[in-house]
Amino acid sequence: MLYKFKSKASGDVIMLGHHAQALLKLIGKDPSSPKGILLPEQMPAALDALRRAIEAEKGGSEVDAGTTSAEAAADAERDQDAVSLRQRAWPLMQMIERSQAENREITWGV
Questions:
Q1: Rg (CA), the chain
Q2: DSSP annotation string for 43-70
Q3: What is the pLDDT of residues 46-55, one digit of tens each?
Q4: Helix, strand or coil, per DSSP, at residue 29
Q5: Higher pLDDT, 66 or 10
Q6: Rounded to an integer, what is the distance from CA 59 to the centroid of its chain?
Q7: How much is the average pLDDT of 54-79?
């Protein structure tokens, strides 16, 4: 399933369902709803929530003191192949910033 985010202030953003649902949950929207709207007055809080989640992910990626070098190397390799929350959220964050600047809502649907 794909989610399509639309705004008159930006081009469309298309995401796989499970990635879009995770971001919707972070910004306080119902991830199980097939469509929704983000109003301009909700955008500052949504951006703040995404930024906090990105910072939390960054802080959680540090190596534990009890981790062996082999485990740390395996974790580093796995992390290198993974797409970070920052990378995944960036297109939506750009859309939110542009929409907020132009006082336009964002809608989405499946």
A1: 16
A2: HHHHHHHHHHHHHHHHHHTSPPTT--HH
A3: 999 999 999 9
A4: coil
A5: 10
A6: 16
A7: 68
User: Do you know the residue count of the chain?
Assistant: 110
Distance CA(24)–CA(32), nearest Å, equals: 9
Secondary structure tally for the chain: helices H, strands E = 4, 4
Using DSSP, state whether 10 is helix, strand or coil: strand
Which structure tokens are listed for 58?
């960054």
Within a domain: residue 7? yes
**95 inside domain:** no
CA distance 16 to 43: 22
Instruction: List the beta bridge partners of residue 14.
Output: 4
Residue 44's domain spans which residues?
1-56+103-110
Rounded to 5 degrees, φ, ψ at 58 are -60, -40
Whole-number pLDDT of residue 53:
96
What's the farthest any 2 CA atoms get from each other in the chain? 51
Q: What are the pLDDT digits (tens) for 82-109?
A: 899 999 999 999 999 999 999 999 999 9
